[in-house]
Specification:
There is one protein chain. The protein starts with a helix and ends in an 11-residue tail after the last strand. It is rod-shaped, with a radius of gyration of 62 Å. The protein has a five-stranded parallel β-sheet, sandwiched between helices. Helix 6 packs across helix 7. The longest helix is centred in the first third of the chain and has 130 residues. The chain folds into two domains: 100 residues; 194 residues, Rossmann fold. Helix 7 links the parallel strand 2 and strand 3. With 378 residues, it is α/β, with parallel strands linked by helices.
Length: 378
């Protein structure tokens, strides 16, 4: 007996009811699964769309960054090119500037070279002219000058000796005066011109004073002393010349040149300074040189050695400059009449000395050294 047959009608009805209900439940379940699938598909589609949008946005961002990168690269390249161009322009400008400076420097050096060449040529011509002048004019002048001065000195000494002998042998008649008057006591006038006698032994105190002044100039030079005081280095050779002129020649004689006019000016400045210390403003220096250039050198040298100014030069001042001996003699005569003490200084370039100059108590002449060409340089 089968199972369907063994069921009761009730069971059969229940079974039929279940069977009728089963397709409905199956369709509902299928509908639910289809809905779930659709939901999943929709979610997948929305997720895909979202992912696609994100990818698109990322792609756009990447593209924008690429564009920015390219723009930056182009800007960097442009800056590098402009920098390179600027550097090249600066280098070119610097080279041009250096080139101009070099050209200007070379031009200036060329001008200086030409000026120096002109100066050298002038000095060479001047040297040749001086040598020619020495050969034609000054040769033997110092020896002739020394001979003439010594001869005149011997003549004066002999004449004075003869005069003194004649005066001793002269007998004067004696006559008694009618009225005797008390002898007048001679008084020294302060305006009388001093008569220096440096070579005599009776002026021992004066000799000591002169030696003391010269020692001070030699050992303790004062380069910022008062005017009319020696302000330059005083070497033993200078002291030897000044001492010889004071004590051996008695303030009247010629000294051998020291080789240059500046050295001779230093010796003359020392003599002037000593005399100014002893006799004050009564000493008036008269310088004789035969050209304005030499007189200008004497003026500058005396200013430098004695610390004096241009105002100390002039007819009524401490130093007077002359180009010819006649005018100097006239000035010296007037000074003697005015109770002044003229000191005559003769430049080494003077060929001859006027005999009228030798009548004054103080004169200093510089005799050129024939063996030294520099004695005539000025």
């Amino acid at each position: 007996m089968s199972s369907d047959e063994s069921r009761t009608p009730k069971d059969q009805d229940l079974a039929a009811q279940k069977s009728s209900e089963s397709p409905a439940s199956n369709s509902q379940e299928s509908n639910n699964s289809e809905g779930q699938n659709e939901t999943q598909e929709n979610a997948s589609a929305s997720a895909a769309k979202s992912n696609s949008r994100e990818r698109d946005e990322l792609a756009q961002q990447v593209a924008e960054l690429e564009r920015q990168k390219q723009a930056l690269e182009k800007e960097i390249e442009s800056l590098q090119q402009s920098k390179t161009q600027m550097l090249s322009e600066q280098v070119e400008q610097t080279q041009q500037t250096l080139g101009r400076m070099v050209q200007e420097g070379l031009k200036e050096l060329e001008q200086r070279k030409q000026a120096l060449q002109i100066s050298v040529e002038q000095l060479e011509r001047r040297r040749e002219r001086i040598r020619e002048e020495m050969r034609t004019t000054f040769a033997g002048a110092s020896q002739e000058l020394a001979i003439r001065v010594q001869g005149f000195k011997d003549y004066l000494v002999g004449s004075l000796q003869d005069l003194s002998v004649a005066a001793e042998q002269l007998e004067l008649p004696s006559s008694e005066p009618e009225e005797t008057s008390p002898p007048e006591i001679p008084t020294e006038s302060p305006e009388e011109a001093p008569t220096p006698q440096f070579a005599e032994q009776g002026f021992h105190e004066q000799t000591q004073q002169i030696r003391s002044i010269l020692d001070q100039y030699r050992t303790l030079p004062d380069y910022y002393g008062s005017p009319w005081q020696l302000r330059r280095t005083f070497e033993p050779i200078h002291a030897e010349r000044v001492t010889k002129w004071f004590f051996s020649q008695g303030g009247r004689g010629a000294l051998r040149s020291l080789g240059s006019r500046l050295q001779n000016i230093l010796v003359a400045s020392a003599v002037i300074s000593v005399l100014r210390t002893m006799y004050g403003e009564r000493v008036r220096t008269l310088v004789l040189a035969n050209t304005p250039e030499r007189l200008g050198e004497w003026r500058r040298g005396l200013q430098d050695c004695l610390g004096i100014s241009r105002s100390d030069f002039g007819p009524a001042r401490g130093v007077v400059l002359f180009e010819n001996p006649e005018a100097l003699v006239q000035k010296a005569d007037r000074l003697v009449e005015d109770k002044q003490l003229p000191l005559i200084v003769v430049d080494e370039a003077e060929e001859l000395i006027s005999l009228s100059l030798l009548q004054f108590p103080l004169w200093l002449a510089f005799a050129p050294d024939a063996q030294s060409e520099s004695s005539y340089m000025y």
